[in-house]
Amino acid sequence: MSGKKTDTTDRIFYDGHCGLCHGFVRFVLAKDGPGLFRFAPLDSDTFRATVPEASRANLGDSIVVLTADRNLLTRSAAVLHVLRRLGGLWQFLAGLIRWIPVAACDWLYDQIARIRHRLFRRPQDSCPIVPSYLRDRFDL
User: Fold this and answer.
1) pLDDT digits (tens, 9 = 90+) for 36-85
2) Which of 41, 51, 56, 90 could form a disulfide with 83 if both were Cys (CB 3.0 to 4.6 A apart)?
3) What pLDDT is recorded for position 126?
4) Which residues of 64-95 are buried (b: 16+ CB within 10 A; e: fewer)?
5) Residues 22, 122, 62, 102: is their CA dihedral positive or negative?
6) Is the Cβ–Cβ distance between 39 and 12 less than 8 Å?
C-alpha cells in the first residue's frame, strides 16, 4: 500500500542537516500509522516545486508544514498542527499548549531552533536509512 494520499496528506519539510529535525521526522513516522504526512527536506526539489519562492524566502530552516488545503505553517503552529493530526495523547498535549500565547510558543521555538545544531548534532558521515516500507512517504 502506498503512503501517497492527495486529499488529506500534509507535507512536512525539514532541515536535512539538523539532528532535531531528523528526530522529529522519526517521531512522526513512528506515531503516524495512517500515513497522514509525507516528508521532504527543505533543500529538495520537491520543496522548491511545491512552495513558491516568495514564501520560501521568509521561512527559515526548520520545520515547515504544507497542509492538504495549502496552508503553510511554521514554527510552533507547524508542530502543534502535527501533534493535533497525530491524535490521542499528542492531540491532548497540543490542546494544552494552545492555551499558551502564540508569541510565547514561537519565542520558545525560536530559542530551541537557534541552538538546535549544538544540542542535536547529526554525525557528518551518517545518512539516515529509511526502511523500504517508509520510502514512498519521502519526496526528495
Assistant:
1) 999 999 888 999 999 888 888 777 767 899 999 999 999 999 999 999 99
2) 90
3) 45
4) bbbeeeeebbbbbbbbbbbbbbbeeebeeebe
5) positive
6) yes
Q: Cα–Cα distance between 11 and 28 in angstroms, integer?
A: 12
10-14 and 64-66 beta bridge pairing: antiparallel
Question: What range does the domain containing 32 cover?
Answer: 10-122
Give the count of domains, the chain: 1
Per-residue CA distances from 103 to 33, 53, 139 (Å): 32, 26, 32
Q: Report if residue 29 sits inside a domain.
A: yes
The one-letter amino acid at 9 = T
Look up the CATH number of the domain holding residue 104: 3.40.30
Write the pLDDT tens digit of every residue in 87-134.
999 999 999 999 999 999 999 988 888 888 777 776 454 455 566 667
pTM of the model: 0.82
Report yes or no on 4 lying in a domain. Answer: no
